[in-house]
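Quick question about two entries, pasted in order.
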Amino acid sequence: MRIRTIAVAGTLSLLAITGLTGTAQAAGDAAAGEKVFNKCRACHSLAEGKRMIGPSLNGLFNRKAGNAEGFQHSADMSAAGAKIDPWNETHFKAYIAKPQEYIGEQIGKPKATTKMVFPGLKSEKEVEDLYAFLEPYFKGEKQGK
């Protein structure tokens, strides 16, 4: 019985270490995410400091919500910076699925007023794919246009 317990414990430890448990999130497809980014491209740049209609997404993980240099954010987005400091994977994925609702949750409103009119991505796959594409830009590891 003791050997069996040790074997089971060892197997579970190996699964946890290698990330093979059923709880691990599947990584998105960066190539597919680049196509999803076409929905964002008209307003957002991936080049550091390059503001368009919206702020640059480069280095997003190094700043809090509503704090992009040189961009005038809505009062609600700026207020959300108290909770979203800094942006991270969890915040971004929840935000891009339902932007106004997510910012509203952060500031105690049913729906926030933001300058971004995009209603959000409807599919979890699109969210995962977009994140896979954008992550190196968010971390400032890659420069875009």
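Here is the second entry:
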Amino acid sequence: MFAEGTSPCATIAAMKFDMKKMMAEVSRVQAQMQEKIAEAEAKLRETTVVGSAGGGIVEVEMNGQRELIRVAIKPEALASLTAELGEEGNIQEAAEELSDLVFAAVNSALAQATKLNEELMSEVSGGMNLAGLGLPNLPGL
């Protein structure tokens, strides 16, 4: 088990030294990874995507962290809905149609933001799934 001419104490001391070097390297790599994650999170906060519905009459803007930034409903959406209603129209139907458009736009923006998030985090992790490692705040993982 021990090399010829070495004492067990010397071997154990060398192992402790190697373990310290290994732990220092692990700490260095962890710090680099945390820095990359922080940079990715900042980029995700700054990058936005836009989902739309109804030919663009409803738009939803979301950032890469899937936070809602803006919802825009063009006036022609309301004009179109009220024109369809006419004198005998049902306001409930118009509200449901508008809700459907908003829902579709949100889902479109969410899908784009999720894709952006996954792509960026995959770059950071080198394609590895880090979800179970207990690293803090890994959006998308």
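Reply: Confidence is low (pLDDT under 50) at residues 136-141. The CA atoms of residues 52 and 113 lie 13 Å apart. Hope that helps.
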